[in-house]
Write a structure and sequence with these properties.
single chain, 145 residues, mainly alpha, 5 helices, elongated
């Protein structure tokens, strides 16, 4: 039962993100009416209005950013920014250490005799570490055109 769970968690984290990336690039076509295409068309057909279009588009983007950040007051401290940036790498490093330690103990000491509750808890920890690692590696795999 446990190898099936381990395989599902590990393969799911490795396969699902690139699969969504592939489906998005293969079947979801980008619209033809993008700002870049409009600017390209204006540059060749009516270059005199290109400046106004770019200014209007920049103002629209600025308004969208201001609306998105409407609840943000001030700038978070650099310490908070660094902690938030370090959460995922620290989790991945801890998962590597945890799984490596488990593998080392099993290889050197043999399979320990645990109570059912302890074995269940250890399985949960192991599966969580595997999920974190496979998710991290899965998000790094990209299928590009």
């Amino acid at each position: 039962m446990f190898p099936i769970i381990d395989a599902a968690v590990s393969l799911g984290g490795l396969i699902i993100p690139p699969l969504f990336d592939f489906v998005k690039k293969k079947f979801v076509k980008s619209e033809n009416d993008t700002p870049e295409r409009t600017m390209g068309t204006l540059a060749t057909t009516k270059p005199e209005v290109l400046g106004d279009y770019v200014k209007g588009y920049a103002d629209m983007q600025r308004a969208a950013v201001e609306f998105f950040n409407r609840d943000v007051i001030g700038v978070p401290s650099q310490f908070i920014v660094n902690i938030r940036a370090a959460i995922r790498p620290i989790g991945v490093i801890c998962s590597f250490i945890l799984l490596g330690g488990m593998a080392y103990l099993i290889l050197t000491e043999g399979m320990p005799q645990l109570s059912p509750e302890a074995a269940e808890c250890l399985t949960g920890i192991r599966v969580s570490a595997e999920a974190m690692l496979s998710s991290w590696f899965g998000h790094r795999i990209a299928i590009s055109k």
